[in-house]
Amino acid sequence: MPVKLRLKRQGRKNLDHFSIVASDSRSPRDGRFIEKIGFYDPVSRPARVYIDHDAALKWLQHGAQPTNTVYSMLRHSGVILKWALTKQERTEEEFTRIYGAWREAKDKQATKVFISVDVNSQPLEPIPTNPVYKPKKKKVSKKRR
Fold first, then answer.
1. What is the DSSP string of the chain?
2. Angle made by CA atoms 36, 37, 38, in degrees to the nearest 5
3. How far is CA 142 from the centre of its chain?
């Protein structure tokens, strides 16, 4: 049974939110899943993401394939770095040093696409004060005669 880590859409029109789930690749997008490993709220700016690192690492070690979007979220939250360090069989001291340096560098970034949150949607990292996204100006189309 090939397993994928992917998004399960929830919510209503224009106010959607997603669960990050491990599911059989043959099941439909919003259908049956094996385990819920997190959630993603794209409506808030910057987007809020919660990922259970232990569950995500377990599924990656068992061979689950993340979709492109989920892979990006795993990379931003540090799960992919943890997975790479465990595959390289680093010592606990090296692991904490490398991951700690990465986390400090990430917290200093001025613009952020994703903000890591806990289960109660409370931020785990500082939220930048400057807006990440600026509203785009609408292009005025010229009428053809």
1. --EEEEEEEEEETTEEEEEEEEEETTS-TTS--SEEEEEEE-SSSSEEEEE-HHHHHHHHHTTPEEPHHHHHHHHHHTHHHHHHHHHTT--HHHHHHHHHHHHHHHHT-SS-SEEEB-TTS-BSSPPPSS-S-PPPPPPPPPPP-
2. 100
3. 40
**What's the rounded Cα separation, in Å, for the pair 58 and 52?**
10
34 φ/ψ angles, rounded to the nearest 5 degrees:
-85, -50
Q: Comparing 60-64, 76-80, 119-123, 132-136, which segment has the lowest mean pLDDT?
A: 132-136
Q: What is the mean pLDDT of residues 111-140?
A: 63
Where residue 91 falls among pLDDT bands split at 50, 70, 90? confident
Contact between 39 and 18 (Cβ < 8 Å): yes
pLDDT value of residue 65: 92
Q: Domains plus CATH for the chain?
A: 3-116 (3.30.1320.10)
